[in-house]
Design brief:
The complex is a heterodimer. By secondary structure, chain A is of the alpha+beta class. Chain A folds into two domains: 44 residues, Arc Repressor Mutant, subunit A, CATH 1.10.10; 78 residues, Alpha-Beta Plaits, CATH 3.30.70. A four-stranded antiparallel beta sheet of chain A has the order 3-4-2-5, with helices on one face. The radius of gyration of chain A is 21 Å and the shape is elongated. Chain B is an alpha+beta fold. In chain B, strand 3 and strand 4 form a beta hairpin. Chain B folds into two domains: 44 residues, no CATH class; 69 residues, Alpha-Beta Plaits (2-Layer Sandwich), CATH 3.30.70. In chain B, strands 3-4-2-5 form a four-stranded antiparallel beta sheet. Classes of the chains: A alpha+beta, B alpha+beta. Chains A and B meet through helix 2, helix 3, strand 1, helix 4 and strand 3 of A and helix 3, strand 1, strand 3, strand 4 and strand 5 of B.
Chain lengths: 161, 151
């Protein structure tokens, strides 16, 4: 699905694009291909889903969204997929996943990330999720982040040789 | 920390969460809309990135579409060992994100590997190096709606 040139493009851009008016031309030159080929390859990788998007990742904290709560829920297995779709569609839920429980320590199978300007705001949103889940939910918890420890995104290990 | 963003910066941050066009001059349309030069657009992006308002600017790759895998992992790290364990965990390039959270399970990180098998190998290596258990929470299903932050 990818060839060595695709891989070289990923390695060259995973930390970011060159910040110049014609970034693809600059990249193409470093990899010894034409700008046109670079753009065609990026378009193909986007069509294949290898590239989700080209753009910026803002730092939520620096934009005032200082409260980040991972809400977790123990939802009836028979209902979790239907309810997960509804929770994922809430405007303030940024990511929502069904994940395996890790019993006995961790009974939760639905994870929904909520960002807000304060912990109170996030707690209020958490109540909205609880109301939506209703009786299909046995218990829940919220884990606020206290520090970003790393945020580099995916990095390929460089292949030997 | 609050940061004094100009109106132009805010517009840029919002616009840059959309997809950049795959053209020779991808900033040209944006520059036109904002009535500034392309150079001004890229200079501002650089400044926002250098100041930490943007964590990254570029392509976002999906390791699963490359045949790889993601896995959310959690560890209960004793407080007195937190920095030592953090250094060891973050040293792995497979650790894409890592957050401290206020819970007994206080370190939550995402592994991104080039193959499904590499998740288990990386988890074992981290467990061996730190002497701590790593709980794995691979996603079984994603309920996702695109998210953007309004600056």
């Amino acid at each position: 699905m990818t060839d060595p040139t695709d891989r070289a493009i990923i390695e060259a851009t995973q930390a970011g694009l060159p910040l110049v008016p014609a970034p693809f031309a600059v990249l193409a030159e470093t990899l010894g291909i034409s700008e046109q080929e670079m753009i065609e390859r990026l378009k193909r990788m986007k069509a294949q889903g290898i590239i989700r998007r080209i753009g910026a990742a803002p730092n939520h904290y620096r934009l005032g969204l200082t409260a980040n709560g991972m809400t977790v829920w123990d939802v009836d297995d028979a209902a979790v997929d239907t309810l997960g779709e509804m929770v994922g569609a809430l405007p303030f839920v940024t990511h929502c996943y069904r994940r395996p429980r890790a019993l006995p320590d961790w009974p939760y199978n639905l994870f929904a990330m909520v960002h807000g300007a304060s912990r109170e705001e996030v707690q209020a949103k958490r109540q909205e999720i609880a109301a939506l889940l209703g009786s299909a939910c046995r218990s829940g918890d919220i884990l606020f982040s206290t520090r970003i420890l790393k945020k580099t995104g995916m990095r390929l290990r460089r292949k030997a040789g | 920390m609050t940061y004094d963003l100009s109106e132009l910066d805010r517009t840029l941050i919002n616009s840059l969460q959309d997809d950049l066009p795959l053209t020779s001059h991808p900033f040209a349309v944006l520059a036109d809309e904002l009535k500034v030069s392309e150079q001004e657009v890229v200079d501002r992006i650089r400044r926002l990135r250098d100041d930490g308002i943007l964590t990254r600017f570029g392509p976002f790759f999906d390791v699963e579409a490359l045949g790889g895998a993601f896995c959310l992992c959690a560890m209960a790290v004793p407080n007195e060992r937190f920095e030592e364990v953090l250094t060891k965990v973050n040293a792995y390039p497979e650790v894409a994100h890592n957050y401290e959270r206020d819970h007994r399970l206080n370190m939550w990180f995402v592994l991104a590997t080039e193959s499904q098998d590499a998740i288990a190998g990386t988890v074992e290596a981290i467990e061996r190096e730190t002497g701590l258990d790593v709980l794995q929470f691979p996603k079984e299903r994603e309920f996702f709606i695109g998210f953007r932050v309004d600056a």
